[in-house]
Known about the structure:
This protein is α+β, with helices and mostly antiparallel strands. It contains one helix and two strands; from the N terminus they run E-E-H. It has one helix spanning 30-45; strands spanning 16-20, 23-27. The chain has a two-stranded antiparallel sheet. The chain is flat and about 55 Å long. The two termini are 18 Å apart.
Amino acid sequence: MKINIPVEPKGKQRARVVTRGGKVISYTPGQTAMTESMIRAHIQRENVYYDKGIPIHLKIIFYLVSPKSCPKKRTLPVTRPTWTI
């Protein structure tokens, strides 16, 4: 099964912790929460469900567009950030 999710990959932001009205509140930044909900909604539209306890193999390929400011001679570095899933 192949699923194409048209979302630009972004590094996952850390949860924020603030104090409001004397209470400590932890929340996920808006951009990360929005990306996660877009991915979740797309997968649910594809009707992808798996039984609990059954292992699955997941292979993820990201296609990135190189920025226009990058010189053509230079190859972009390959890094391994924490992706939003």
